[in-house]
Amino acid sequence: MSTVTSTRRGGRKRARLLSGPGGSVVRVASSVIITFFGLLLVTFLIGRILPIDPVIAAVGDHASEAVYARVREEMGLNLPLWQQFFVYVSNVLHGDFGKSILTSQPVLTDIARVFPATLELATLGTIIGVILGVPLGVFAAVHKGKWPDHLVRIFGLVGYSMPIFWLGLMGLLVFYMKLDWVAGPGRVDAFYADFIEPTTGLMLVDTLLDGDIDLFWNAVSHIILPASLLAYFSLAYIARMTRSFMLEQLSQEYILAARVKGISEFRIIWRHALGNVMVPLVTVIALSYANLLEGSVLTETIFAWPGLGLYITNSLLNADMNAVLGGTVVVGAVFIGVNMLSDLLYRLLDPRARR
């Protein structure tokens, strides 16, 4: 009987530990580890399933059998599959993704060089999407069922439906070739390429740090079109979710009570209702940002934007699997990190989530 009682007490004690702040950290850490392990497993299997021989990609089609066997052994492809996966995980945890065939540089070095371009593009796109998407969602919710609501919903539906590569090509055709309002593909004009001293890797930031205003505005003219294109998709998602959250809040009893008290409609909408909406909206914005970080491959390809998406695309076309898998792991890790950040912000903003 005493054994059963002590077992129950131990179970209750473990439950209390897992329900406290320390238990929350343990659960989050466990979730992150399992998710990252699953990401490594998927990328490893993709690298083995794809009909691409990394040895041929490294030595060429005309290499001798002896050279082929030696390189295959150096890559560890002669080992059993489970040992290859163990070596792969160990290397990744040490920051070793192998060397790129295209650049002959470590993949991690290449990623550190190209990722700031993707980060800059996605960040600007998200900022534009939030600045425009949140007010449009509020505007649509306030005018539910009226023509402003229908107009915002159609605008968002078009953003979801149009292929991004078509919008990119049309944008270049209209705003670059016909109207000459923006610069063409790339981050800056070729004339300025040798004048850049990368400090942060973010072109807009580096040009301001150098005090080169002409180069700054040249970089702005290059980034504004692809960033606006990404912002359109972010805006459509954020506006739709903001509208949904606002409709739920505007139907609550506290809104009716505020109106009975004579509080102005502007304050009710933009302070009370939107204030409660911002808590779940943080998660929406974070997910949108993560999607832009990992989903800008087509945009970077169309605009010749030297970011991570273009790097992975070129590597895949040239059978550079180390670069492809390394880029995929980094994208997945960024997505996991952004999700963790959004969960943390949610807990900080909403006391109920902390309890």
What does this structure look like?
With 355 residues, the protein is mostly helical. The protein has two domains: 65 residues; 248 residues, Orthogonal Bundle (MetI-like fold). The chain is 77% helix and 0% strand. Helix 10 crosses helix 12. It is globular. The N terminus is likely disordered.
Q: Brief overview, please?
A:
77% of the residues lie in helices and 0% in strands.
Keywords for this entry:
2 domains, mainly alpha, single chain, 355 residues, 16 helices, MetI-like fold
Layout of strands and helices, then pairs:
Layout (H helix, E strand, L loop, with lengths): L1 H18 L1 H29 L4 H6 L5 H10 L6 H13 L13 H36 L4 H15 L2 H15 L24 H8 L2 H38 L2 H8 L4 H30 L2 H6 L5 H10 L3 H29 L1 H4 L1
CATH class bucket of the largest domain? Mainly Alpha
Q: Give the termini separation.
A: 35 Å
Q: List the total number of helices.
A: 16
Query: What's the number of domains?
Result: 2
Measured on Cα atoms, how large is the radius of gyration?
A: 25 Å
Bulk shape: globular
Binned strand content: under 5%
Overall number of strands: 0
> Structural class of the secondary elements?
mainly alpha
